[in-house]
User: Fold these one by one.
Assistant:
Number 1:
Amino acid sequence: MESKGSIRRQVSKLKLVTAVSAALFLGACGGDDTDTEFQNHLDRAKAYQSQGQYKAAMIEYRNAAKKSGGKPEVMIEFADAMNEVGNHQNARSYLEAIAGETSESYLLELSETYIALGKFQSASSTLEQLKEPTREKMLLEAELLSKKGDFDAARVIYQKLLANNPQDGRSNVGMATLNALEGQMPAALVLVEKVSADDEAFPKAQLLKAGIEISENQLENAESTLSELLSVLPTSDQMLPDRVLTLERLSYVLTRQGRANEAYIYTKLLSEAFPGATEANDTFQEALADFQENRLDQAKEKLEKLVEQYPGHTRSRQVLGIISYMQGDTEAAARYLDDVVDPETASPLATQVYMATNLKLNEPQRVLDALEPTIEQQTSVELLALYGLAAVSDKQYEKGEAALKKAASIDPKNVRLQLALASFYRSAPQVDRAQELPYLLRAFELAPTQQQVLIDIASYYTRSGDQATAKALLLDNARAQSSNYTANFIAGQYLATLGEVDGSNDYLRKALPLAESTTNQAIVQGALGRNALLQNNNQEAKNRFSKMLELSPNSMGAYAGIYEASTRLNGRDAAVKSLEELAVTNKSMAAFRSLIRVELANRNISGAERAYQTAMTTFPDQGAELADAKAVIDYSRALDYLKTGQLEKARQVATTSLVTNPGNVRVVAVLAEIEIKAGQFEEAEKILTQLAEQQEQLGHIYPALKGDLAFAKKDLASARSDYEAAWAISKTPGVAEKLHRVFGLLKDDSARTAFLAEWYTAQPDNPLAMLLVGMQSQQSGDVDKASTVYETLLTQRPDSVAALNNLGWIYFERGDKKALELLSRAAELAPNSAAVLDSYGWVLHKFGRTEEGLPYLEKAAALQPDNAEIQGHFLEAKN
């Protein structure tokens, strides 16, 4: 609690008393002028302060601040008083609230406050703004350097000050402190004795003298020094820092001398001044001991009670935040750590947890704001890494890259940093695989058995189309690390992705006995179960997933595997029934969640609703765990009604769902789509305005909905812009179809052609994209490309009428009779399509089978009597 004496503004307290007392008397008779009124409050505050009546002084300072509208000179005086009583945090708040102030008195007060709070970088930056080397600036600079451990630089400044005035009390105390810290006690005492009793630095000098005497075990001398100091310290209605430190040291000395009863007198004075402080500290120390021994629940319980009683107990909130983070409660961690973590002063662990918490909560800007002021001087690898990740998340790529590189240069053996840099070059706007690989290889060199390292390096080669290198690396590593679980497991998993199931099983079976935890054993059983499914060995798969369930009773993957194997063995209905029985028999929430997911995947929304109700009956107090499942069910039901045009039912489901789960933004989005389709554009606008705050959570859905609304209002330019924004976020087929249609309606053929190429590149397996590319190629005369695309499409969608018809026509134009087979299938699938019937009938006619073709041509002509081409075909064949 030691605090440097506050800076006095050129006038000593003794001289101020008489003048301010007079002002206090005159102020009582003053008028209502605002300037006079705030000045009266300010004068009274100074008068009370000079008399040691700090409580009254603080009231008057607040009145002065309010009446003056926060004038800088008033706020500075107020902050000075708060610093004097040791309330540095509030002093800082008041000073930092003054915008654009650069006066000398302000910068000095702010620097003093920062030093008292341990914010040395902030203090240094503030002092740099003062250009003139005044005594006050030099004293603060020397104190700052001393506290930062740069004793030589501090000594130079004190020597300059003492050369100018050998009796400068604060300089002598500062120089004596440096001597004491360096073990030069006699030299320190000589300097202390130079400080006279009427010097403002006298209390600090005597406290330092007593500290030296204690360190030299001269307890009687220390008692004498402290007792004499206590007798001359001014009395006040609030315990000032110098008195607190004097009482603490006196109590310590008396206890060391075996005079506990006398020591208790001083301890009691402190307890009365700070009620509950001793008990709070004792409780905190007990909780801290629990935390250090990993008794997290006991520590948490004590700290929660402490924070409830003392909400401002910073250290308790910091440790509670760390515990919450360790237990996976990110939101609680953020709640406890918010406003109590300053990167300049908080413990490294608390700072790291707070930054990591904000990253997890997707608040990178808070991390950047907190670390930005000190990032240039930062040497903590963890904080540099967190800053770098936050900058990348906030799309400040250059800053992120620089911070991550700096962290890696400090700790070149840190595997996580190597992976973070590899990830940066993999996902930055300008992907740079050449820079990604060296970091991955370095990580592999450092940690060849770390799972993420193996996954990332295999992924790199796979993305580069070099599966052979990835395979060789993983298998060589598994052989080199033959007794390591991870090396064998990842090798097995990778072989499975290549379709080499037998080889995969060999490595997975090696990994199984090496897995020390039941969690890893369950994971291997699941992998073997999936391999069995790939080989259609369904009973083996079911056995493996059953073993997985024994090892991990709450594994949704195990239940999903059992369901898939049972479906193949006994059919879907029997598998669903079996899963229902498992859920009820095992009373397993995971089983119910799996059942709901299965029913939704099977588009059986009613079945999912029944499973949800059964789960709620089985677990009546655990509705929160199923809230997300209920939200998906409601979303699916509302969407189903929407797609079938039952808008009122869709609206009813959506609004009812939002009563119980107002945070379900996807249901809100469905509600917006309902209003758009219903033509209720104003309601849709209102909903979209609400959704704007959650647009990051919604991803492409939000701009796509804006595009839908614009399209419905026939604002094609806005629809295009919104759909383009949605496509940039996520290249989904639905958005692609809408954007392609808008380009067509805008008659922007070049944009439509360019977009189709982009769409086809992004989704080469999308049936509509394939069909459109085929049609475009056919129309432009590139029939070879068109036929290749149509043929590929028909392997996926053999019932695509358009592909059958168009490919059949290409074969016809080539004189290939395979056209008849394709067009026949098209006619069977679309017996009422005039274009398809015309194609088939005409080709039959041209291949000499007019009698067979004529009925198709006749029906086509009847379906489209105004189509000249179809009518011409019919007449030619008929005649």
Note: Residues 1-31 have pLDDT under 50 and may be disordered.
Number 2:
Amino acid sequence: MKVFTFWERIKNNNFIIKNIRVLCVLVIAFDILTTVYFSVQMLKSNIREILTTTNNEIALYIDSTLRLGTAIANDEEIKDTTIPLVERAAKLDSYTKAYNLFMVGVLDKEGNIGSSIRHKTGYVGYRPYFKEMLATRKTVLSDQYVAGADHETKIYTLWIPYYDEKHLPEGEIAGAITMSIYFDKIEDIIQNKGDSNTAYECSVVDSRGIISANNKEDMRGMQIEDALARAKWRSMSDELVKEHLKTHKEFSYWAWDRAFEYVSYMPIPQTNWLVSMRIDVFKSYSILLWSLLLKLLVYFSIFLVLSLRKNREIWLHDNLFNMMSINTDDVFGIFDIKKNKPEYISYNIERIMSVDHDEVFNDHSLMKKYFQVDFEVIKAKLFEAEDKTYAFEREWKDKSFYFKSYLVKHDGELKIIMIVHDRTEERIKNDRLKTALQQAEKANIAKTVFLSAMSHDIRTPMNAIMGMTAIAKEHLHELPRVADCLDKIDVSSKYLLNLIDEVLDMARIENDKMILQETAVDLENIVDEIFSILKVGLYKKDQKLTIDLSGLKHRYVYADKEKLQKVLVNIVSNAIKYTDVKGKIKLEVKELGCDDKGFCSYQFIVTDNGSGISKEFLPKIFLPFEREENSVTNKIQGTGLGLTISKRIANMMQGDITVKSESGQGSVFTVAVKLKLQQENDGSGQESEDAAEALEAPPDYTGKRILVVEDNELNYEIIAEIIGCAGITVEWAENGLLAVEKVRDSAEGYFDLIFMDIQMPVMDGYTASKNIRNLEREDVVKMPIVAVSANAFSEDVHKSFVAGMNEHLAKPIDIQKLYTILKRYLTC
């Protein structure tokens, strides 16, 4: 019962339950760290024990040789300076043989030596160790070196001072005992600590920094600095290691050479030597390391099982929540303020926000990168808000998102719940409504501007027409005055007609209804006709128009003659208007080159020395209804649409219009177009013939009969009066049905030509023409039918031809064109 109560208390402790995984990790980490710590301490202890043992063995051996040398130095016969060196040396044989020494010798203080090897004297007073001994008055131990006849015997030498108190003053050195000892004993001690296959490496480093003994052959005789240089890493700096070696201090460090090693150095007493021990940690403690690794695997497995269980629960919850959110347009997220990381993000974030779920979950800073969502700012805003909510909008990848954040408390921890709603469709609808509203407002403004401009431009010629009409009525008996009024009415009427045509052209261009009707043309003839059209204006102002066709190589092309001519006439006529009397104008045609598809680029350059255009007005010159305001332009009539229309037509011909001008310096207009070449002259010469015909007066057509189909009596009266002057008999039909009946009921060949209006009640002109062509009589097959309509666009002309008509004459009627048609069809 007590156990149950204890576990109930544990279970009810929220801190333990919530942090159980953290506590487990801490316990595991403590266990592993303590294991590693004690393992390291054990390693250090073991290596120090081995190192100390080795050091003691070497030190005991060297100490025994020192005691032997001291005993020899205290031998009364050996230190008696009155006895010759050779005799004293002979007595040393017994020591050499008894203690297995390489050599024992006795020296006087001048450096002369008597040796147990040769029993004769020699001189070694130059040797450093002898000099050191004399200077320090102490025993000196040499480093290991080779000697003997084969120069392969390894030895080290003791230099021990001796004193002859009987024959020399007290304290005066009489000489030295030199004892050369085989190095084999020290090597045996080192070798016994292991071999080349063990994890231990034991060495003796002499005062010169040379490894004089080592249990691995490849290290013997190597400089300690070279051995140190092989290490890829060391826990102690090279400088500190070298300093400790030089001062013969005890020290240790970790290193990575050919393996992970622990290295320790210890000075050998009564010498300038160091003994070192190097241990391969992994090789020596493999069992311990494997056990540690096994423990880690066990802990990791337990932790993994617990985590998987917990993760499975989280996964199940995620799946349930994702099932709810996957088909919605809202992204859900939970952000842990304390951990500063997301706890949950719904997977529909990839579909809705076009970002990778895992990337954002693992690095929430991407939300700032992509959407400028800064969680630090959001936290601050949430803490400030009374209702603990914060909302904002962001745009990304042409999408709109609405972010709504809530600050909530769960199990005592603060979290941010964020809902992201895709508002792209709403934004698109709103944008469309705004665009529609803006377009409507622009349309209203444009309509107002258009009506204002049109009101002014229409009223100006209408005022002239009405005024001149009134003046003519007042002076009916003054024929010159009446004729003058009629001329001015004619000019104003033509201006008004031109204004209407240009407005209609602008409307068709804006609605993309203007199309090019390309036919075979001759560019030279087009230029000649332009001159013919404009020569009256040139003569009135006594101006000179120079035409330069020298740059034209291919004159026969396919083009919309009417529109190209309209552009050039507009620009040349502007040059005439804005150039003073006796001014000079030049029209130059250049061919720039042709491509492999048979298209050539042409330039029509119009240059004048007129009033020019101000720098301020140049950017607006191609805008509709724009005209420069100055003393020159204010006297000249114009709609402000001609250049706008001309530029659009040039664009349709894959070209453009550019202008260079300065006020008072004249202007240069360049019309660039791209036209397709003809393979041969396709009858373009007919153009000039037609133009020439148009200038001739009609002959007498007495006996000819024409049917005029027109629903407006005034229009009928005008055309009947014009053609009646040529002796033609005129009959009238008020609509298309009456016209069909009149032709059907007439005799063969009764009508020589029909003028057909298009828009009429009962039956329109197109239907009437088709029905007339379908009558069962021979004359209707070749009977000329000419459309007479206010619909003057190229597509209207095309409809007339499709309906079976031969010509199209636009209203108001151009009398010269009317005479040309009469001549074409009534002349036998």
Note: The first strand starts at residue 103 and ends at 108.
Number 3:
Amino acid sequence: MERSLIKVLMLEDVPADVELTSDALRRAGLVMEIHHVSNESDYRSALQSWQPDLILGDYTLPQYDGLSALLLRRELAPDVPFVFVTGSLGEERAVETLRMGATDYVLKQNLARLPVVVLRALAESDAMRDQRRMQQELDHERQLLRAVLNTTGALIVVLDHGGRITRLNPAAESAIGQTQEAVAGLDYWNLFAAEEEREGLRQQFAQLDADGHREAGGQSPWRTTLDGCRAILWSAGRLQRLGSESEYVVLAGIDVTEQEKAEQQAYFLRHYDSVTGLPNRELLQHRLQRATPKREPDQLALVLIGIERLAEVRDSMGIATCNQLLREASRRLQSWQQAGDWLAKVGENSFALMLEVQDEGELPRQLQRMLDQLRQPYRLDQREFFLPAYLGATLHSVGGDPMASVQAAEAALHRAVFDQASGFQLYRAILSDEAHERLILEGQLHEALQGAGQLELHYQPQASLASGRIVAVEALVRWRHPTRGLIPPAQFIPLAEASGLIIALGERVLHTACQQAADWQRAGLPAITMAVNLASAQWAQPGALVATVRSALSSSGLEPQWLELELTESTSMHAPTTTIEVMKQLRKMGVHLSIDDFGTGYCNLSYLKRFPVDKLKIDRSFVSDITNDPDDLAISRTVAAMAHQLGLEVVAEGVETEGQLALLAEAGCDLIQGFLFSRPLPPDACASMMADRATLPPWRKEREQQTLLLLDDEQHVLAALRRLLRSGSYCVLTTSSPTEAFELLATHEVGVILADQRMPELSGTEFLNRVKDMYPATVRMILSGYTDLKTVTEAINHGAIYKFLTKPWDDEQLLAAVAEAFIKYELDKDRHG
């Protein structure tokens, strides 16, 4: 048995001897954990609780002695080897210690011998332990064999030539619930067969008695039913009676109930999905052949349902969680069943459902409702999972070809996944043409990769919030098709991934980006980081990826410190251990790393802290609504705080408004990327922007004295309020749109909000509830002629509204309420910090 760590219990009263002994063992390369004791109490406790692999003990101690320690070892840990390490030990004492069970002894003046003794003692201990284990296994096998022979599970019944019972084994006794003595002399068939089986067995044994040469029980085994539920398969043999010419008939019965159940289970496994219990693809096609509408003139529609991102869940959280989500998806779909077996699981992450519809025009409405239900968050173990779902549907003709219907629905599903717009597609003949068109486009993409001029890179700047200047650019590939013009990445990137061309495309992008960065530097432009997003397929080939990066840097002459490689959060979790190793190799080269689209996958935080990355990029899905969604704002703040705790920079992508910029800056983001600063630019335009030293627009909040925000969808109301309130010292901001109001809140330090209740875009209470979560110090008031007492009361009770004022208003009362609100704001601002 190999030990990576040896647990050594050392009984010694001299600390210097403990150190010398430990050094002698460690110098020999032994890896040990040493527990030192010097008295009987500690020694006894260590034997009972610490469970050492080896005991090293002095023979003579002030308050204890080695022989007593040896005897106590025999009592409490007899399998642990005991080696005396002592200053002197005469021959007689040495013999005595070995006789009493010591493994060996070593004199302290000869510690060089100790490692050999220790290794031999451990080896002998392991050998003895293995020998005892093998002996125990042999004894167990003997007992098991004896038990099998004496208590076999087969039913053994010995009969005389007339079919009367003479002997039973315990299994047969247990099967009928009677002892051998109680049933001796009774007919076998009356006890071991169902009533309808008995006459046939009686005639069978009568024939056996008439013809002594026939095989007992006929030519083949037979089956009987016991207790109405157990199936017993019998075979027969003959046994000569001792001292007699007559014979016994020996029956052996095997309970085949479970075997028959297994055969049923095998049928289930061939035709049903083991995770969800639903019919599988084979059974679906069989049943499609017989499918007819329950009502005339309804039509049948076959719907294929694809659930996305389950592979990411499986890789990051395990197969059990993935299976639970599949079962929940099937449960949601079962609510759409119109007959017993119309739902099936036809792929790893896909289902099929047969619907009855009155006409084809009804189908899109049903598909949209189904899609809305499937895209609701999946709650599991106090976590929420968002799994995109897509539907492909086709009408199925009664008596039509099931395979053709399934293929048509699959074509529609593939189109729905590819487009990702509506989320569902109805099959049209043109979809087959589109599939053919994709094959043509795939071939043209392959040609574009072989040549030059079609694939080009645009570069989107990333600006530092500290300096406002460009510090990095992200390389984004574009395909300028010779006849179709500029093909968007959303169209050809999935095509490249599906066709396996993404590796070659990624290599082309990496080489071109490195060359461009080096060219800019040689032209005298500021040295900035070049960020390149790598595909998951590239990370799946670690050796090739490292070689490609090294080649791109070498051929371009770009220093590694100016290259940043991005991988998505989901990609990082496909094989996290392998990913970490590749990252370490890249970091060793001097390349920087970042995690893109953070927050959209299932990144395990224990892995995140091990990833040798420099940046996290907050996904644009959190940035787009950050000015009006408290959750997105909270997520952005949390990601930024967590990243800074891990020593990482934070990049926000998709920044398009000044409000987003201001909130992201306050949240702690370090860099921003988006249309607010710059769209992706061709190389020359990007170079000009760098040469001009372009900077971010001012993003810090305007902090005027006592800023008041008025929100009302009626312009004449806003005008009247503006005239009234400008007489004071307030900075008055007005808007008729809640969306614009959120933008103003992001860019101004607003002390008081006065909002209407009834607005087409968002009600006043809903608006102020969000403001409460995002800007808790801002004082929120409603000014409305519409009174929904329940809604307003709840909002006031939850602290979303400070006051409710009615239209038409009293000027003095309104001015007083606003003044009071600003006093409250100053107090609350200090409290909220």
Note: The chain is about 45% helix and 20% strand.
Number 4:
Amino acid sequence: MPTRPQLPLQAWPGQLHRSLRRHLPYGIVALMLGMLALAWWYGLQRLDAERQLILRNAQAQQQNLAAIVAENLAQIIDRGRLMALASAELQDRKGLELNSAMSLVRTADKVYLRIALYDRQLRPLFASTPGRLNAESSAALRTLSDKPTDAEVFLLPDGKHGEQSWQIPLYFPLADEAGRSNGGLLAILDLGYFLGLYQHIEIGRSGLIHIVSRDGDELIEARREGLALKTQSRPPSALPTGAESAGSLSGRLFDDGLVYLASYQPLKRYPFTVAVSRSQDDILGEHQANRSRFFAILGLCTAAIAFAAWWIAFSLRQQTQLLAALEQADGENRQLIVRLEEEKRRAFELAAHDPLTGLPNRRMFHELVSSHLNHAKRSRRHYALMYLDLDRFKSINDSLGHHVGDLLLQAVAERLRQTLRESDVIARLGGDEFAVLLTRLDTPNDCSAVAEKLIQSIVEPLLLEGHTLHTSPSIGIALYPRDGADIATLCRHADAAMYESKQAGRSRFSYYDPSLNQGGDRSRRLEHALPDAIANGELTLHFQPRVRLEDYRIVGLEALIRWTHPEFGLIYPGDFLTLAERNEYLPRLEYWVIASCCRQIADWRADGLPVPRVAINLSGHLLRTGDLPRQLSAALSQYGLHAGDIEIEIAERTLLDLPAEAATSALGALAGQGFRLTLDNAGHGISNLNHVRTLPLHAIKIAPALVGNIRNSTDDGAIVASIITLAHNMKLRVIAQHVEMLDQLVHLKTAGCDEAQGYLLSRPVAAEDASRLLLETTLAPL
């Protein structure tokens, strides 16, 4: 028997793919038809469940309405029974007395149009309105009076038609103490008035309310159009005669041929039954409309899905044929696409230029420099790496916008191209930093000439967007191989040299010098770490006491900032405040000092220590912003302090650099809040005391240079004495600082100085040590 050839293992995936592709259209069509059948089944089931729910809800609503009407009718008949019992007590009265009493009984309820009281012989004792019973009602009444009964009320035949048929005569029999018939009360019930109360109840277009007697006679009918009298419909023919409990039934109950759903409720003690009916067409009207819409929509969907299934099957068959033809071409093109993707990846890797200036970026520059250094190892020529940083670029960028800053960078890049040779490599490393590799120099001294040319080219004014801009470069130079044999070392040393240029005054160039690199590296590292010092909790406050020379009592503290660096240890303000000011970190540091000082005062007071006024030093940056009073108030409010707890020291040079009006306004705002103001380092601007006299100051601090030379220079001694005298004439207190020798203190006290601080009395100490000083309250010189 011949065997069927087997396919190789690697051919099975292709064969399986082709088989799936051939049978896929039929599978999709079968799936769509199955989903369509499921949708039809689910829709019919849901419509049937919705119909049953609507009928159950309608039956419950009709049953509730029948129960409400029956209960209200029973309450009205109960009130009639109460009128009968009240009338029994009045049978012995005569004339006007009886009429008056019965009139009061009559007015108790408007639903009864007329009442009449009869004695044992059925003679009328009282009638609310003139009128006589018809013969049929009189005969029925005599029959009831001849035989004893336990019934509480009887329905008498009215013998009339038309509107008066809504007036139902009810007879309430009365009995004497022996249980014998003793007359009764005839009350005419106005069913029209009663059912009129339900006329506005929404019971649908075909809704009916019937009141029928226990015998099955219709008494009245209420429908949407109003009340009717046996003219258009009949009560439910299947209503049980003498039914004792509520119930429901459905069918063709009336002669209009419609199927009705009826609910009835018999009155328990009275011969009446209330029935509420509504045609099923009316009840299911909205459901039928939804059903029709559902069938219409589902029919359209069925047609659309059937067409879509056919179209999908047709399209997939065509696509199968096309895909089979494309498989071979796809295999041939796949290798070509792989090669093109590889070439594209390499092209993207080579696109390593700065998009703004067109210069190579950092990555491209490092590759080019490495390549040149490899050639330099085999050459006797010299190479130099330059780092250029534009001075004042940040202020230009912030004040005129990034667009102008970008134009400036493009202009500088163009000037670098024009100044340097084609063999030199120029790159933009990022921001306002450029790098240049000078190649094939004859001597290292050629770098100086090139650097001078670069500075002269860049410092030339630039007219950009209507603005005349001035900038200059700070250049650092590292020579190969003297300052480094690899790209990383050369870049690091060129950056260090550039930093030295900026420190030395900018618009200049510097060669890398290892002897200067240690200090510059420390400053550079401090500058980089300064922004994180506050977040890392490295800043702290020390406090130096200030004593009153009269009794050496501690009358104040000066808060001084310190930086506890994790590597360099305790760093004093002189080593980092200049860095902070140059990088615009100084306002953040000063706000930190304000908040920390207020927090420390609050902690001392919580410990019960006597805390004098604490002085803080502020720069002109905060005075210019105009936001200083608000920041101070917020800090004081946060820790529950007052303005009198803080003293603000402003350097004399800061005030003299500010315009007179600005200084007066800023200090006036602070003084108006209650802060004490002290002029620090007084003595350098003594010639401008006329301006100082107009400021709202409370004290002045003598400059340390004058205090330090007070022993050796008679001129400084005379200046200090003059400052003290002038300050006292202006009602200002005088404070001497940097007092380190006892004879300095004696001279100051003799000249009339009010307060002093310095190493002679106490060094600046941490908050814990300051707490012990505050407990001593006095601090005599050592």
Note: The two ends are 124 Å apart (CA to CA).
